[in-house]
Amino acid sequence: MPSPCLADAVAVHGLHRPHRTALVFNDRSVTYGELIDLTQTYRGQLTQLEIPAGSTVCVPAYKTPETIALLLAAFHEDLAVLAPAPDLGAAALARLAQQARATHILTASDTLTADRVPQDEVEAAGFAKAAPGLLLTTSGSTGTPKIVPIAPAGFDAFAAWATQEFALTSDDVALSYAPLNFDLALLDIWSFLQLGARVVLVDQGRATDAPYIQALVEAHEVTFIQGVPMLYRLLAEAGTAFAAVREVIFTGDSVPDSLLPQVSVAFPKAKFHNIFGCTETNDSFIHEVDPATLTGKMPIGRPIAGTEARVSEAGELLVATPFQTAGYLNTALNAAAFVELDGRVFYRTGDLVTRDDDGLYSLQGRADWQVKVRGVRTNLQEVEQVIAAHPEVLEAVVVPLPDEQAGVRLHAHVSRHPSSTLSSLRLRTHAGEHLPRHAIPTSVHITDTPLPRTSTGKPDRNLIKSNRMKEIQT
């Protein structure tokens, strides 16, 4: 809850090692004793709300000690907890909570704020009732992300694997860079708390502040880091060595060749691993890397222990892991995403891969419209649908552009209705009401003329992308 073992383990740490630091957030340190006291306070407030055990609540995943304590309290109370992105638009958040049949939307600060969720059986139709535990979501580029239940047994198996694979102990210190609602938190927050280790939380409002992040790693003698390439670029800018770091995990996007030598210098005593996975399966591939000698594209590696991989005739990767979800809460989506082969359920990743003679897998691209923005899979077609839903929009195309920091950023080319005064600011505000932050186009071009088209009548995406790149270069 991710499992009863987690909640109970953290409680034991609070009892036997109350003065040991559990969380660091900006200038504040929270001991295990303080974390358990805060958890108990929220448990009392949950009891006052008279939420029956087995119910679902929605907790927007603000990355704070209070939210972590509230999640632990909900786990203790045998609740299913939907933890969506905190920057999700209000309409999308309400719709998501209704689909999960959440009774309340809960937010944590000095006190617990609880807003009842109006039940909507039409919105919830086709959605299964969630079992107690954690409910994550996919990237949600439509504003209505897929809800992914994390089985308690799956989390226990994952935490056990990670502890052994990376030789984690209670003396380790993790830097948690990704948002709390990402599946990466299963490792660098929840698995570390279960061990009684320390977690340094990166304030999401300062996630691009290089001196701030560098100071966190140095001041708290961080030993374990996982994150997207942008994190390592920010740390490498320091030009110094972080000697305490012993494990570096690459995830989310392919690390640019130009960054690898800097990373090697920044972490002189670290082992490096490239980890590949998704919310539905958690980690599934691992590859040990020597950034000082690697040439060419970095492989995703080989299946981790207990994982089985298949490659379809079309080159799509199918995986089955000991940690994967049993299926989306929206059961209508499962037939297309999960397939049973030889008595085991595999997830269709949508990733195109190759496998060499030594069993090493390499990623070649996507089988659909998805790209990764800051490590988060984002469906271009679904973003287009949200933008096209604006009443003043005639047509919209969204294309990915290369970005040195984010890997990919989105550009929207929009044809508006005649006499419309629609501006890029108003359109991005509309997108913000229905999309998570990473899926909102960084740039918007609004025109009164029709979209450029190919000879077959389809929008000319290559031309739109080329024109925007020329504008940037000039």
Describe this structure in words.
With 474 residues, the chain is an alpha/beta fold. The protein is built from 14 helices and 25 strands. The strands form five sheets. The chain has a nine-stranded mixed sheet, sandwiched between helices. It has a six-stranded mixed sheet with strand order 6-5-3-4-7-8, sandwiched between helices. Strand 13 and strand 14 form a beta hairpin. It is globular. The termini are far apart. The relative contact order is 0.09.
Key words describing this protein structure:
single chain; 474 residues; alpha/beta; nine-stranded mixed sheet; 14 helices; 25 strands
Radius of gyration: 22 Å
How much helix is in the residues? 25-40%
Overall geometric form: globular
Structural class: alpha/beta
Question: Order of strands across the biggest sheet?
Answer: 2-1-10-9-11-12-13-14-15
**Unreliably modeled segments:** none
Quaternary structure:
single chain
Mean pLDDT: 91
Number-wise, the strands total: 25
What is the CA-CA span between the terminal residues? Answer: 52 Å
Proportion in β-strands: 25-35%
Number of helical regions: 14
Biggest beta-sheet profile:
9 strands, mixed
Quick description:
Helices cover 30% and strands 28% of the residues. It is an alpha/beta fold and 474 residues long.
Produce the secondary structure layout.
Blueprint: H1 4-16, E1 21-25, E2 28-31, H2 32-49, E3 56-58, H3 65-76, E4 80-82, H4 90-99, E5 102-108, E6 112-116, H5 121-124, E7 133-137, E8 147-150, H6 152-165, E9 173-176, H7 185-195, E10 198-201, H8 210-219, E11 224-227, H9 229-236, E12 247-250, H10 260-266, E13 271-278, E14 282-289, E15 302-303, E16 308-311, E17 316-320, H11 334-337, E18 338-341, E19 344-355, E20 361-366, E21 370-373, E22 376-379, H12 380-388, E23 393-403, E24 407-416, H13 424-434, E25 443-447, H14 461-473
Parallel strand pairs: 1-10, 3-4, 3-5, 4-7, 9-10, 9-11, 11-12, 12-13, 24-25
Antiparallel strand pairs: 1-2, 5-6, 7-8, 13-14, 14-15, 16-17, 17-19, 18-19, 19-20, 21-22, 23-24
